[in-house]
Amino acid sequence: MLKIAIVGCGKVADQHVQAIGRIPDCVIVGLCDRELLMAKQLGERTDITACFSDLHEMLGTTRPDVVHITTPPQSHFPLARQCLEFGTHVYLEKPFTITANEAESLIDLAETRGLKITAGHNYLFTLEMLEMRRLIKAGFLGGRPVHLESYWSYDLGDRSYVAPMLGDSNHWVRRPPGQLFHNIISHGTAKLAEFLDSELVEITAIAHQSEQLRSLGAQEVMDELRVLMRDKSGTTALFCFSTQIKGLNQLKAYGPAGSMAADIITGSLVRHPSRAYKSYLTYFIPPLRNAREHFANASRNIANFARRRLYQDFGMKELIERFYDSIRTGKPVPIPYREIILTAKIMDAIFAQIYPSRTIDDRRWKTDADHGLAMPSDVPVPLLTSDL
Questions:
Q1: For labeling, which of 207, 261, 285, 333 is most exposed (least CB within 10 Å)?
Q2: How far is CA 386 from CA 105, 218, 228, 303, in A?
Q3: Residue 117 CB contacts under 8 Å (≥ 6 apart), including other chains
Q4: What DSSP string describes 279-332?
Q5: What secondary structure letter does DSSP report for 34?
Q6: What are the residues whose beta carbons fall under 8 Å from the beta carbon of 169, sequence distance 6 or more?
Q7: What is the mean pLDDT of each run of 10 residues along the chain (388 residues)?
Q8: What does the DSSP assignment read for 339-388?
């Protein structure tokens, strides 16, 4: 029986509790948040009584095997380091860390201590993404991907999220180098990292502020991002993040023999084999093939729903379960460390281009003697601040 603890009791923590509840042979033994009331409220909703406001106290009292860290990104590195040094495995919500150097440091520490750590890139483990990965390995594309496209949209219509961020220049969403982008885009860039070489030879990022955000008085916050990249093997990739395109969360992969598109919103995977047809058949057969693909997706989704395999946060449950299995059995972690580090490096490169004056200089980071944390000297320490 694995003992699990959660640090950071904002709304995303509820999703973790629900996902963990679907996994056998594990139990949540503690909740921790700097605001003890947040931990107690989550405990009341989920029937968990062991609530703490101090991480060290929770670790010493509950002795968890795994800690889920669901706090704002500025606190990920110090909290994860503290948990690893205590001897616990760590599930670290996205974004993994603020910088690639921090990501490498945590992974090195985990390996040195014989522990495991993973990133909360749960959208890599939805049903359609699992099937896309299987088909690519089986050779559907006719080789490695030649080109990739990742699209990630985010709706700013939720005023409960947007208003606090816009009204407070010190809001935690605006503190990281990438501001709004920093908290969100790792979901989309992680999908590209899986199929790219570790060495990127070219990356170009452009960003701007939408009229919608400008009308809300967001000042320097940007919410439209386009990125082009190429790895040393010649694979190219496009990443698009937008608050103005609604309901577009897709990964497209193109190869010599075909292409496919995984749609996170509809839970579907559409395959496009590269075939030539004679005469007017090219106008008839491909649309019929597409119709068959969509009908097959609908049928699979109905069947999975009936079998209780189709539900929100399936990807989170699948990732957590695979991570726990790697701890129990010694199997490799579900997300290779190479991909976690590459995702962080891509984000570093993006933010260095679009927010050059905000990029963190690692030499400015120091140790906080009271908490054992590494934080910039001019940034407040959000030790256990609840995620939104």
A1: 285
A2: 24, 23, 34, 37
A3: 80, 84, 89, 90, 91, 92, 106, 107, 110, 333
A4: GGGGGTHHHHHHHHHHHHHHHHHHHHHHTT---TTHHHHHHHHHHHHHHHH-PP
A5: S
A6: none
A7: 96 95 96 96 95 97 98 96 98 97 98 98 97 97 97 82 72 84 94 96 96 80 96 97 94 97 96 88 92 95 90 93 98 98 97 82 32 32 38
A8: HHHHHHHHHHHHHHHHSGGG---GGGEEEETTTTEEEETTS---TTPPP-
What are 30's strand-pairing partners? 5
Coil, strand or helix at 141:
coil
What are the backbone angles phi and psi of residue 268, rounded to the nearest 5°?
Answer: -130, 155
Tell me the whole-structure pTM to 2 decimals. Answer: 0.89
| DSSP single-letter state for residue 123 | G
Instruction: Label the pairing between strands 258-263 and 250-254.
Output: antiparallel
Sign of the C-alpha dihedral computed for residues 340, 178, 320 and 157 taken in this order: negative
User: Whose CA is closest to 51, among 382, 320, 384?
Assistant: 384
Is 65 within 8 Å of 88 (Cβ atoms)?
yes
DSSP character at residue 173: G
Residue with tokens 């299995």: 325
Task: Give the integer Cα–Cα distance in Å for 270 and 251.
Answer: 11
